[in-house]
User: Which sequence fits this backbone?
């Protein structure tokens, strides 16, 4: 005799159930009913073998209530069924399981995991058909509409994904099911089963991955995506699947473990679209690869970066991609750049977009220079240029051989400036610099300055460096990183490279300091994760354990929070700062227009960053007479160049403990502190002050 188990998530209609139970009994089945229903509305004279309502015996205990509070109704029903002895005994003996409503389908699926492997279906009509087919086949054939047990998922994924009700698939791949190692392993095997069409595999894999995330199995989600992706033949579906997991990790503030696979999948898709002549499709896929690879969470909003760890290795997939290589293929220029004129002033165009922070001294100096005629262009103030700078899809599509109107629009916007200028100096290697390389500059010389941030963005990977004559870097270690990471900066078409310090007026920072300032540490600029002020707090803690006179002054605005990664760091920082501020160990100076004045209270200037181009705040502090203590920036530590080659070697420390010892030794007495500060001032003014640095700019603009 066949035992038929009906599971109800709510009270079924009496007339419908009465007719169905009679039909099941006529076919020789024993019928059991379990679930959450109103017992008074169930007719006990229908011939039930078992009727069991859960939870039974009144309200559930406090422990059960706590366990079920966060559950969805289908999961809550299964919890009570599993923990009710009577219901569980019936479940163990069932040959055929019928879910009567949407809330019951999850429990029906969970029953299917037992070793007896009962047949499972949804609805009374489906249950009757299943029972009839079971009898016709002698009890061994699995009906087509039956989803089957999880343990045989690899044999029937195609059928079940097509026929499984959406609610059952969603519940079968829910967090409660996937929290178990066996469930997660079985579904991972199921979505990588051979012979399943891509669209069906994708549907199931997405559900399983979602359940993995909700169950807290992030690594399981990645493993599932990789397993399913390995069986996909459609590059678009494969890219979408891997993107699903990568974007989820990024949104949560982490670098995806499968980032390279996701980026490579989009590059493969771009290559396929490019080979087929679909420039728009190739551009979209290539842009998605760039957005993933150079997302700010991966490189900017954390204290580590895979690009900094291995620049050439991280960008290798772009070198190997035909579409990515085509996007930066050198087009060159029709004529070489002309030499600076001898019979008239040099026409110098200084261009940027929105950010002219590092251009003030350059502009004021050359505006006053009779040998230079200077014009300034902020492309953000010109609607046409602003639109082109923001049209990344059109830009990449043009570079792949499509969207000719983009080049025409760039020509119209930039040609008047190129025809006027002898030299164009573009600050920041981002969208404006890329736009200038869209058009042939003619005889006009193009110079682009890359600070630090840009090396971790997509823009250098979508510009034609053969149309740039000179690249200016603010430090040797930034040049090293950029040349290793950016394909266009190496080879016969690469521009000349120069290292020139930022323009800074440091003489104005030289101040006389009060003796009590000796115990005041300062950190200028804490608005980015890269500044890593938590490292400074470790130094402060070590110092105060030895002498409570040491304090830390934080100059600058609060940390920006553009992503969950930055928010997580900011929360950790605020939690650490709160007691220190309350006891007076930390002074938050905040944003100020008078940085030289703020530095009068600083006796030791810190650079605690994980990466810098050249730390302007540190240089200003050194010029003020504060003793410099510089962390060996982790992004560049161990390389040929870094903090130790940009600054005097004795300024550099590798650990907070080493920083503590340096501070204690140099502030041991007023005399030792002032002598160290005087040496720092002399070095800063003779190395980085504008009268020194402007000679490098003169050579850049006038010497060829």
Assistant:
């Amino acid at each position: 005799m066949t035992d038929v188990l009906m599971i109800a998530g709510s009270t079924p209609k009496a007339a419908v159930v009465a007719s169905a139970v009679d039909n099941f009994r006529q076919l020789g089945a024993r019928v059991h009913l379990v679930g959450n229903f109103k017992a008074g509305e169930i007719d006990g004279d229908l011939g039930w073998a078992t009727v069991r309502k859960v939870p039974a015996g009144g309200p559930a205990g406090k422990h059960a209530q706590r366990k079920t509070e966060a559950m969805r109704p289908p999961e809550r029903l299964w919890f009570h069924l599993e923990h009710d002895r009577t219901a569980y005994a019936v479940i163990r003996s069932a040959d055929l399981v019928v879910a009567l409503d949407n809330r019951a389908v999850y429990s029906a699926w969970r029953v299917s995991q037992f070793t007896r492997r009962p047949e499972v279906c949804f609805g009374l009509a489906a249950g009757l058909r299943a029972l009839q087919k079971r009898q016709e086949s002698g009890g061994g054939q699995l009906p087509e509409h039956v989803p089957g047990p999880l343990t045989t998922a690899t044999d029937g994924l195609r059928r079940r994904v097509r026929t499984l009700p959406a609610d059952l698939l969603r519940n079968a791949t829910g967090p409660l099911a996937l929290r178990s190692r066996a469930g997660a392993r079985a579904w991972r095997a199921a979505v990588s089963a051979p012979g399943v069409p891509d669209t069906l595999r994708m549907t199931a894999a997405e559900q399983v991955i979602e359940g993995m995330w909700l169950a807290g199995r992030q690594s399981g989600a990645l493993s599932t995506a990789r397993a399913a992706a390995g069986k996909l033949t459609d590059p678009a579906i494969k890219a979408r699947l891997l993107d699903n997991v990568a974007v989820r990790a990024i949104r949560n503030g982490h670098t995806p473990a499968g980032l390279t696979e996701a980026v490579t999948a989009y590059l493969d898709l771009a290559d396929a679209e490019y080979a087929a002549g679909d420039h728009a499709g190739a551009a979209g896929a290539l842009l998605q690869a760039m957005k993933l690879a150079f997302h700010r969470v991966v490189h900017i909003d954390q204290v580590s970066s895979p690009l900094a760890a291995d620049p050439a290795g991280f960008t290798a997939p772009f070198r190997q991609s035909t579409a990515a290589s085509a996007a930066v293929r050198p087009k060159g220029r029709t004529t070489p750049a002309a030499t600076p004129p001898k019979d008239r002033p040099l026409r110098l165009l200084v261009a940027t977009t929105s950010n002219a922070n590092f251009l003030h001294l350059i502009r004021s100096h050359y505006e006053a220079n009779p040998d230079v005629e200077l014009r300034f262009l902020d492309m953000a103030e010109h609607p046409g240029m602003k639109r082109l700078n923001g049209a990344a899809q059109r830009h990449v599509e043009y570079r792949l051989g499509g969207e000719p109107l983009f080049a025409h629009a760039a020509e119209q916007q930039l040609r008047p400036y190129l025809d006027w200028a002898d030299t164009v100096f573009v600050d920041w290697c981002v969208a404006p610099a890329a736009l200038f390389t869209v058009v042939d500059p003619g005889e006009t010389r193009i110079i682009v300055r890359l600070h630090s941030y840009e090396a971790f963005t997509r823009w250098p990977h979508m510009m034609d460096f053969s149309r740039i004559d000179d690249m200016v870097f603010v430090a040797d270690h930034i040049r090293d990183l950029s040349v290793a990471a950016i394909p266009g900066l190496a080879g016969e078409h690469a521009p000349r490279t120069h290292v020139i310090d930022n323009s800074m007026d440091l003489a104005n920072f030289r101040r006389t300091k009060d003796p009590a300032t000796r115990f005041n540490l300062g950190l200028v600029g804490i608005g980015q994760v890269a500044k890593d002020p938590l490292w400074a707090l470790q130094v402060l803690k070590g110092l105060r354990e030895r002498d409570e006179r040491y304090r830390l002054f934080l100059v600058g605005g609060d940390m920006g929070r553009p992503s969950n990664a930055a928010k997580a760091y900011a929360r950790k920082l605020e939690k650490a700062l709160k007691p220190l501020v309350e006891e007076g160990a930390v002074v938050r100076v905040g944003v100020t227009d008078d940085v030289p004045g703020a530095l009068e209270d600083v006796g030791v200037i810190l650079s605690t960053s994980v990466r810098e181009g050249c730390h302007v705040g540190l240089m200003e502090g050194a010029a003020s007479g504060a003793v410099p203590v510089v962390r060996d920036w982790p992004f560049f530590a161990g390389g040929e160049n870094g903090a130790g080659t940009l600054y005097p070697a004795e300024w550099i420390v590798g650990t907070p403990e080493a920083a503590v010892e340096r501070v204690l030794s140099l502030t041991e007495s007023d005399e030792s502190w002032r002598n160290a500060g005087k040496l720092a001032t002399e070095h800063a003014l003779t190395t980085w002050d504008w009268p020194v640095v402007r000679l490098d700019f003169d050579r850049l603009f006038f010497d060829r």
Summary: The first helix runs from residue 14 to 26. The domain at 507-688 is CATH 3.40.50.2000 (Rossmann fold).
